[in-house]
Amino acid sequence: MEVVAGVQHEGAGPLILPRAEHCVSRRDIDPEALKILFRLQRLGFTAYLTGGAVRDMLLGRKPKDFDIATDARPNQIRKYFANAFIIGRRFRLAHIRFRGGKVIEVATFRRDPGPAAGSAVPSSGTAFAAGQIPAAQKPPEEGGAVMAAGERAPLYAFGTPEEDAWRRDITVNALFYDPATAAVIDYVGGVADLRQGRIRVIGDAAERFREDPVRIWRVIRYAARLGFAIGDGIGSEILEQRQLLAGCSESRMYEELSKDLLGPRSRDVFALHREYGVLRLLLGRIGEALENDEPMFAVSSSLLASADAEKEAGRPLGLDEMLSLLLWPWAAPLLSQAGSDPFPLLKKAFLGAGMVVSLPKGMRAQVIDLLALAGRMVRALGDGNMRWSARSRPGYALASRLCYMITQGRVPTAGESFEDLYQKTFPGRPLWGGSSPRRRRPRRQGPAA
Ligand code: ATP
Ligand code: MG
Known about the structure:
binds adenosine-5'-triphosphate; disordered N terminus
């Protein structure tokens, strides 16, 4: 393992950063999360804020969500919190739900199950890698460890805060914040890495990537999002092991792709994926095209950048829209070859691309529709021929927005649409072919009064 000055070692005890030495203020913490933390502590449990929330607050950013780690077991959490729901077939966590859809995730400290557990690596809130855990397997309610059929080593086991920190993915994601003392607790050298703007895998990168290849993806995501450098030796390990991503479960890949698209700085995240050659692993031939064709990728990049600015302004885009922006320059040439119904051609191209990430059927259909409709609009701005009956299609408004972004390089404001563009380009022509779309007459009910 690489030794870096100022980096802690397992068993050496934590670095404790008192309140005066960091910028995390209780006021920045979600009040419900704070209540849960204090309640757990009053009940005699250890309870810390952890993960992305501590990382983001230390960087002066607003966290997306507030995850809690505790030594209370899932069934104890359920006992003390009436609004707690235990989730996760593979690793049990509590979701504490509040009005308005807010959810605070409370996970019990756990430890690395060790290499004999294969690549069954729990990640907070989500899954183990590649679905290695038998469906019939029941996690223990109160127990120390879960064993897979035929395995000697546990798939996961509860642990101490220190063990919990060491089983996490990267150092800056493994910090704890103790609300009682307002101190940041760092077992793994995350504070030094935050200060130096560095992403470092906890433990031996080669081994941790083998255990769970999704960590390759996560290293790239957080390096790009935070604008951090990837630590020494880790970049070459990514290049060496990136192929392992191809063996990950399709649904987990879809989840990760969604996080990249919906999260901040998607432009930078995809640029770094491309730099490390992982786009082709995730998106098959589509990723290959985006990697090989610089101008094509530049189009995706600038569309994602416009979307990122929208997200930052508090106007998030949907996943179908984000996927369409990413895929537009790949789909555009296909759309121009297709006849009046491009759906079958695009669907075939999607299915034939050999993507590791598989989009759920409904999402794929939505994205194809959106791309096809936006493509028709873009073409209509060139030749004036628009099939206005498309106005009644559910994706029309989104496609109009997409067409605007593609042709104008920015998101339309409230009053702007494809129709404005059409009118400006073809001032003499009536919109909607000169008449409103046909409407059904309301059915008469009974004899006229
Ligand atoms: P954000 O939610 O802002 O994207 P995050 O760091 O909170 O960032 P999550 O995906 O919510 O990311 O994961 C929560 C925490 O769980 C991480 O901070 C990390 O400590 C741990 N974690 C997530 N995935 C893995 C993994 N594959 N291996 C080890 N630890 C993981
Ligand atoms: Mg999170």
